[in-house]
Structures are given as structure tokens and as C-alpha cells.
Specification:
It contains four helices and 16 strands. With about 240 residues, it is α+β, with helices and mostly antiparallel strands. The chain has one domain: Alpha-Beta Plaits. It has a four-stranded antiparallel sheet with strand order 3-6-1-7, covered by helices on one side. Helix 1 crosses helix 3.
Length: about 240
């Protein structure tokens, strides 16, 4: 069985939390929908192809470096018009909003699907049809100098494990988690959040399907007992795929 591993780094990343309207807040990591969107950009998929293929992939992720949360002031357009009384000019009315971004994050992303689709995705990511980004169009993705081959196709196998560094669905985390050990100086303790893993509808009627997960960085989870199903070995990295 083939798997795909991606090493993603950038100066900034912004993965908008879709259910927060008072703040343009970001996830600390790219959700599954974002990663498959990146694959779709590389392959040149339209919306229908993207929506059809999300569920054909399983996804896992390790936050190698959470980076630092930075803020900027953005402008929000709500479709309103304003007429200047003196000049008579009509312009779009915009509102200021605070935007959070991640500065210098690093992620290991893991994907599985049928072998043909994984091979196609791996080849396309090395020669994408559209520019790859880490969220916003200005947050360009680039390979690090010490790892220019950011895409790697590898043989994977399901393998029981009792230690993990990857994000986990909440039901798995709550069932198996025991304690954790620190493996880096900068740590992000486990936190729970709701992420999009799929969509229903399309266009303006598209709505995300949520899943609660636990994410963390700089630590390794020690489990109560080995996970027998769902954990895969990616060249030495134990990863839970969902």
C-alpha cells in the first residue's frame, strides 16, 4: 500500500476557522479539506472533482513546529455600499477586523488512498497546475533548503503503536491517551478543536462537515494500550489516519 508524505513550511500560514465571525482566526495546522484542496490545485481539479475526491483520501498530520501567532488588521467586505455625500461617489463599505496568522510553522502531512490516485497526486504536487499556498493566496508554500524534495511516495503498512506525535480524532484521544513526554523545548499542550473534514452541497450552499480533534506539538503521547487499527508506519513515523 502506498502513502504520500509532505513536509510543509512557510513564512506565514492562515487556515481560517469557519465558525468564528468576530475574529479572522486560524487553525494551528491545515485541516484535511485544506490539504486535499492543495492536492486538487496541483491536479487542476474543479469544485466537483474536489468534492468527490475528499473522501477518497485518509489524512494524518504532525505539527513539527507550531510557529508563533501574529496579528494584523484586515478589512472585511459585507456587500454593502456607501455614498459619499460631498463627492457623490459610491464605494464598497468595509469593516476592520483582527486577523491571526501563524509565523514560520512546519508540518508533516500524511495521505493514503488507492495507489493510482496517490501516485497521481505525488507527481502533480511536484509539478502543480496552480500555485500551492498555505491558506491565503499570498502565503506561498516553499520547500526548505535542507529538504527540497518535500513530496515523498512510500510504502506504508498498518502497525499497532503505543506512542504518537500526530493529531487525533477526539474519540481516539479520549479512549487511548494516558500521558505525554516532552521531546522539544517549545511545546503546545493538547487542545481540542473542531475542523472540517468534508463538505455537503456546493457553491454558495457548501457547508463543512466537522470533526473534533486534539492537536499538540513538541510532545509525544503515551497511550494506555496500543492502537490496533488506523495507525500506519510511514518510514518510522507512526501516524493515525482518518
Amino acid at each position: 500500500m502506498l502513502g504520500l508524505r509532505l513536509n510543509l513550511t512557510g513564512i506565514f500560514s492562515f487556515f481560517r476557522i469557519p465558525y468564528n465571525s468576530l475574529l479572522m482566526d486560524t487553525y494551528h495546522f491545515p485541516p484535511k479539506t485544506t490539504i486535499i484542496g492543495m492536492v486538487g490545485a496541483a491536479l487542476g481539479w474543479d469544485e466537483d472533482e474536489f468534492l468527490k475526491n475528499i473522501r477518497n483520501f485518509r489524512y494524518g498530520l504532525i505539527i513539527e513546529s507550531a510557529g508563533e501567532v501574529l496579528q494584523e488588521l484586515a478589512s472585511l467586505y459585507k456587500g454593502e455600499k456607501h455614498k459619499d455625500e460631498m463627492s457623490g461617489l459610491v464605494y464598497d463599505k468595509r469593516y476592520p477586523i483582527t486577523k491571526n496568522m501563524m509565523h514560520k510553522p512546519a508540518y508533516k502531512v500524511f495521505l493514503s488512498s488507492d495507489n493510482a490516485l496517490i501516485k497521481e497526486a505525488g507527481e502533480a504536487l511536484c509539478n502543480p497546475k496552480f500555485v500551492l499556498t498555505l491558506g491565503d493566496s499570498e502565503n506561498l508554500f516553499y520547500p526548505t533548503s535542507n529538504n527540497p524534495n518535500f513530496v515523498r511516495l512510500t510504502e506504508i503498512k498498518e502497525k499497532p503503536t503505543q506512542k504518537l506525535k500526530c493529531i487525533l480524532p477526539s474519540e481516539v484521544y479520549n479512549k487511548y491517551h494516558s500521558t505525554f513526554s516532552k521531546i522539544k523545548d517549545d511545546i503546545l499542550p493538547p487542545r481540542e478543536i473542531k475542523i472540517p473534514i468534508d463538505f455537503i452541497g456546493k457553491g454558495k450552499n457548501r457547508r463543512f462537515i466537522p470533526k473534533n480533534v486534539f492537536y499538540y506539538s513538541g510532545i509525544e503521547l503515551q497511550l494506555k494500550k496500543p492502537i490496533e487499527k488506523g495507525a500506519f508506519d510511514f518510514d518510522g513515523d507512526a501516524v493515525y489516519l482518518f
